Amino acid sequence: MKICEDGRNKYYGTFRNEWKYYISLWECQALRERFSNMMELDPHAQNGIYMIRSLYFDDYWNSAYNEKMAGVDFRKKYRIRIYNCQDSHIKLERKIKLSNYIHKDSASITRQEFDWITEGRYDFLLRHKKPALSGILL
């Protein structure tokens, strides 16, 4: 699979770099003050924070886990997320990693659709009216 110089891929769209860093509480406070005039707080946060609950999916052979541990360059990961312990806003996400590049597809699903997925009933995704959901299994 190839990613063009502009970060795009023919099949999946735009990829980005994702860098993660550990910082101290002091560094966190300094960065907050530095960027407070340039950035807006997340409107979904309550008192500046929100709780995220994630349910990750893997197959019978734990392929996603084993590919990560083996350092496989191209891999996919699926998860469902809720925020602030509420099921009123549920996201189904596919994260594709290619070397140091990452692409995410995300779509809202209903509580009923969540229940179907956890029951192993994925067929509705293939017929879904939302393109992000109908293509997520590809």
Helix content, binned percent:
25-40%
Please identify the structural class as seen in this structure: alpha+beta
**Strand order in the sheet with the most strands:** 3-7-6-5-4
Q: What is the CA–CA distance across the termini?
A: 15 Å
How large is the radius of gyration?
18 Å
Query: What's the helix count?
Result: 5
The H-and-E topology, N to C, reads as: EEEHEHEEEHHH
Compute the number of strand runs.
7
pLDDT < 50 stretches = none
Task: Summarize it.
The protein has 138 residues and is an alpha+beta fold.
What does this structure look like?
The protein is of the alpha+beta class and 138 residues long. The protein is built from 5 helices and 7 strands; from the N terminus they run E-E-E-H-E-H-E-E-E-H-H-H. The strands form 2 sheets. It has a 5-stranded antiparallel β-sheet with strand order 3-7-6-5-4. It has a two-stranded antiparallel sheet with strand order 1-2. A hairpin with a 2-residue loop joins strand 5 (74-83) and strand 6 (86-98).
Short descriptors:
single chain; 138 residues; alpha+beta; five-stranded antiparallel β-sheet; two-stranded antiparallel ribbon
